[in-house]
Amino acid sequence: MSSSLEKLYKFALLEKKRNFDDRAVFGGLQEILPAWVAEARSENIDLKIIAEISEKIENYKSQSCETRSKTIEDILELIQNNSQVVPARPVAETSSYLARNIKTPMDSNQGIGRNDLIYSKMLLAPVTSITGVGESIAGKLAKLGITTIKDLLDYYPRRYDDFSNFLPINHLEFGKEVTAIGTIKSIASRPTKNPHITLTEAILTDGTGFLRLSWFNQPYLENVIKPDVQIVVSGKVDRYLGRLSLNNPEWEKLEKEQLHTNRIVPVYALTADLKQRSLRNIIYKTVNYWASRVTDYLPASICESAGLMDMQSAIFQIHFPDSMEDLRKAQHRLAFDEIFLLQMGALQQKRKWQSNTAQSFYVSDEWLQEQQEKLPYPLTSAQNKSFQEIRADLSSGIPMNRLLQGDVGSGKTIIAGLASAIIIQNGAQAAIIAPTSILAEQHYKTFQNLFSSAGDFLQLVSPDAIQILIGDTPAADREKILAGLANGEVKLLIGTHAILEDVVKFSNLQLAIIDEQHRFGVKQRAQFRSKGVNPHLLVMTATPIPRSLALTVYGDLDLSIIDELPAGRQEIETHLLHPLERERAYSLIHSQIKAGRQAFIIYPLVEEEETNEESKAAVNEYERLKNDVFSHERVGLVHGRMSQEEKDRVMAAFRDHELDVLVSTSVIEVGVDIPNATVMLIEGANRFGLAQLHQFRGRVGRGVEKSYCLLVPETIDAVENERLIVMASTNDGFVLAERDLSQRGPGEFLGVRQSGYSNLRMASLSNIKLIEQARYYAGEVFKSDPDLENPAHRNIKPLIQFHWNEGQGDIS
Q1: What does the alpha-carbon distance between residue 99 and residue 112 come to, in Å, rounded to a whole number?
Q2: Which of 3, 173, 284, 488 is such that its CA lies 20 to 30 A from the CA of 79?
């Protein structure tokens, strides 16, 4: 028998002989536990045995005599059953079994020591391996997405109640969250008027005053909290019959280590049949044992340089913080990790993409100058810079992987057109995918006019060499298009998701362009790229994204920004109106319609909600506007519950000026080009974010006539809404994007991108300082050791695979 087990066995026998008075050793069994655990680990005793014994001893002091008797018998039996165990490995058989049977991405990592590897694998053991967690509790935890030990460590509190400040009872104040210590003077239960509710009341005193405590439907407390017992209580001070009270307070006996009172208490999201105290106890047990065994993957040099808390402390402090400052440090460390690992994944994806080869495409400066002179207007300096970056990519021999970001009306389409022209001039094919048929048709008309011999400008190819493929394309036309793609006669294809179908095969696709990229998922983008062999890829967005956010979220892409509008483009006059000034807006629309123009009217809802009478909805307001306000005009309706075909039909009618006013929800925010529309009236404007409002505004002002954007909030108070005031003060989408990021977070910028950023639990992408810090250190590590072969960096590699699913990273 090992020395540590033999000692504990003797202590247990002596404790049994003394009738379980917890005096077999000085200070009690709990006091020797840390030293015993350290000795047992140094002797390589089975971790499972250590954990079981620790869990039995750690609450020994507060156990009843009967419970202590069972605890001691269990410990003696455990030691007897394992007295012949002579460990032959760094970690005993239980751990080895887990190491053999729990497969993780870490299996391939030779840089992690065996103990670290086994501990890491053991974190993936089921929750039932924790003493006290049976199948029933495991089922409840599974409803919260918790199935492993690691899940428990990663299940962060949703908030914290600060019960860390003791106050004497005579200093308690109504409405305050407090912690008090005292002695129970009396306790009793009684029925209430409701036959299903029992009230248990106790009086607590600390010598300075008396405090009433009450609990509902917990009569068993009479047998647990008896008179003369000292307890700690925490809760919000209420008042009952003029006296201070605590209703349903958290409580613990004074001699116990406080988890639920007298500290900053974690509060977790629950499922219906799991109690807060039970979950808190399970997580404490898990964190207390496992936090110190988690390997810190970051080199100490980075932690020190970046001022980061070590991982082991961060895990403990995020669940059971000793102070608000420790909680803040833990949150910062875990948030840093999320951004750091995602950025490392993005850099790896970028490197992987750049390791491929692609066909190089060149055109002479003279040819390019000749084509640019044929354009309807000269390129702005920002357009020219972006185009030169794209031109360099196309000639590099490495697949282009670039995000072209530009404000509404900044001229991204013409840059995409020039890039396509280089590909077409070299005899290859290009394709553009758009999220809607109306947008695809818009691009088709633009490129026919730009490229074809029947157009007004470059005249590079015949009209038949440019085709459009959407869901409504007739079967005969579809067959002709598919044949033209396969034999190379079609040089430029514009379309919707129909392009992604298996039957669509290109002869030599060399440039794939995605418009409004946030409307496409990772798999769709990958499908599009697979239509060619390492084609050059250009993704475009009209949603201005703050540069710091773009460099992080799209860290695998090169970034081009068009941050100025073409010469002569008029600013849209934006006004914030009082809800009672709606008639002024209608008058402006009437006057614009008389002048031959058109107008949008946007509503935040499709139909009215019973719970919010102030919110106007498109369907209801459409009827009122059509029959009353604009009874002599042609009014149309489009909203998200309509089929795509219905929406396209209405939008086409508006585009063709068959409608004067279009009533809509947010479905029109992106891409629609109606040059004749000059008024954008946004009802319930306070319900939208700045980025979305700016996109709405960008639907007008696309022609030569002066245009207007009118913002009408729901209530008088909302006129003071800071977002709306900012919106009315500037037309610069990048200024608005920075403000929106700080106010509402990054949700509106991310769309359906699926590379981990929408699943961040601790980091906020509005924390620019954190983003830049994590990006800097990720860049430094990657620059010095891209393959992560340095022993100090090898622990990073497997964690990237947890945070960034390999092969699923978004490289578009």
Answers
A1: 13
A2: 284
